[in-house]
UniProtKB/TrEMBL annotation:
Protein family (similarity comment): Belongs to the class-I pyridoxal-phosphate-dependent aminotransferase family. Alanine aminotransferase subfamily.
Annotated pathway: Amino-acid degradation; L-alanine degradation via transaminase pathway; pyruvate from L-alanine: step 1/1
Protein name: alanine transaminase
SUPFAM superfamilies linked: PLP-dependent transferases
Catalytic reaction equation(s): L-alanine + 2-oxoglutarate = pyruvate + L-glutamate
Organism: Ladona fulva (Scarce chaser dragonfly)
Record keywords, A-Z: Aminotransferase, Pyridoxal phosphate, Transferase
Keyword Transferase (UniProt): yes
Pfam families in UniProt: Aminotran_1_2 (PF00155)
């Protein structure tokens, strides 16, 4: 099957936000060589550590609808939100709240137990929720998945625990909530420490890490650099 990768750039000056004009530029350039059918958005961001605002997600969905693009939303770091004022909004939730015609768009959302506060990378458990797909397409997707390797039983069990965590009133809830909060607090402190350290270094700037597990600094070459740097 013919395919091509289409790159687009995030806007560092806007906390690595996604600019619609940049999307349009990338799409127009790609259409000279191929027929783009989908857009991939990673939120919270990898490797830029940004968390998209609801307004930005609305813009992206309107763009995808206008250009007849399937939206592939990688949302595996949705629990890892650190910066004050940042909040995770799922593409499914925003799309649904927007109402028709946007709520009728095709969307695939991805989640994993290999990422986030769980960090069970070796178990390789994950899933995709597909929204508004044609039944025949879903049947073909299931057939294709059934022909591939899958996570171990242990990985699938852990994934079930991730999507069905302890609820208030259940025996393990207090311990679960305490441990989850401790992990996320520790990650938030380290995210700030990394960004602050980068910004204290001559010739390096870094946006605050809003989420995920990444900082993406800008390195500016300086004339008086020496070996100690």
């Amino acid at each position: 099957m013919f395919h091509c990768k289409i790159g687009y750039y995030l806007d560092e000056s806007k906390q690595w936000g996604l600019d619609i004009n940049e999307l349009q530029r990338a799409l127009d350039e790609a259409r000279k060589e191929c027929n783009p059918r989908a857009i991939v958005v990673i939120n919270p961001g990898n490797p830029t550590g940004q968390v998209l605002s609801r307004e930005n997600i609305v813009e992206i969905l309107k763009f995808a609808h206008r250009e007849s693009l399937l939206v592939l939303a990688d949302e595996v770091y949705q629990d890892n939100i650190y910066a004050e004022g940042s909040k995770f909004f799922s593409f499914k939730k925003v799309m649904t709240e927007m109402g028709p015609p946007y709520s009728d768009m095709e969307l695939a959302s991805f989640m994993s137990c290999s990422k986030g506060y769980m960090g069970e990378c070796g178990l390789r458990g994950g899933y995709s929720e597909v929204i508004n797909f044609d039944p025949d397409v879903k049947a073909m997707l299931l057939k294709s998945i059934s022909a591939m390797l899958c996570p171990t039983v242990l990985g699938q069990t852990v994934m079930d625990v991730v999507v069905n965590p302890p609820q208030p009133g259940e025996p393990s809830y207090d311990q679960f909530a305490t441990e989850k909060a401790a992990v996320l607090k520790s990650l938030a402190l380290r995210a700030k420490m990394v960004a602050d350290t980068f910004n204290s270094m001559k010739g390096i700037t870094c946006n605050p890490v809003q989420g995920a597990m990444y900082a993406f600094p800008q390195v500016n070459l300086i004339s008086d650099v020496n070996d100690s740097f």
